[in-house]
Write a structure and sequence with these properties.
Strand content: 5-15%
InterPro entries: ATL_DNA_repair, MethylDNA_cys_MeTrfase_DNA-bd, MethylDNA_cys_MeTrfase_DNAb, WH-like_DNA-bd_sf
Order of helices and strands: HEHHEHEEH
CATH topology: Arc Repressor Mutant, subunit A
Number of strands: 4
GO molecular function: catalytic activity
Protein name: O(6)-alkylguanine repair protein YbaZ
Structural class: mainly alpha
GO biological process, one term: DNA repair
Shape: globular
Radius of gyration: 13 Å
Distance between the termini: 21 Å
Largest sheet: 2 strands, parallel
Strand order of the largest sheet: 1-2
CATH superfamily: Winged helix-like DNA-binding domain superfamily/Winged helix DNA-binding domain
CATH architecture: Orthogonal Bundle
Number of domains: 1
Organism: Asanoa ishikariensis
């Protein structure tokens, strides 16, 4: 998979995350690793920072549930509006984690 295809695959996964659910950067990288040969949460984060504005970016969080830095207020408002399980201003991934089928 070339770099452009990987960007498209990351964005396609994020588009599929349903309201009220979330995935971590690392989970997205793990999900795509067999097909892409890549398993970098940082790369997924870089892709989201550059290209994620057209997808539900607020549903992608750090492994500890922390929302996107610099956009915390907007991300939290969107997540709460979708009834995403939260704990202390972080997504409760034990209840909100989603994995593509």
């Amino acid at each position: 998979m070339d770099p452009e295809e990987y960007v498209e695959e990351v964005l396609a996964v994020v588009e599929r995350i349903p309201p009220g659910r979330a995935m971590s950067y690392g989970a997205i990288a793990d999900y795509l690793s067999d097909r892409s040969g890549r398993a970098s949460a940082r790369l997924v984060g870089a892709i989201m920072a550059r290209h994620g504005g057209s997808v539900p970016w607020h549903r992608v969080v750090a492994a500890n549930g922390r929302v996107v830095p610099g956009h915390e207020k907007e991300a939290l408002a969107r997540l709460v509006g979708e009834a995403t399980p939260m704990r202390n201003d972080r997504v409760d991934l034990s209840r909100a984690a989603w994995w593509p089928e």
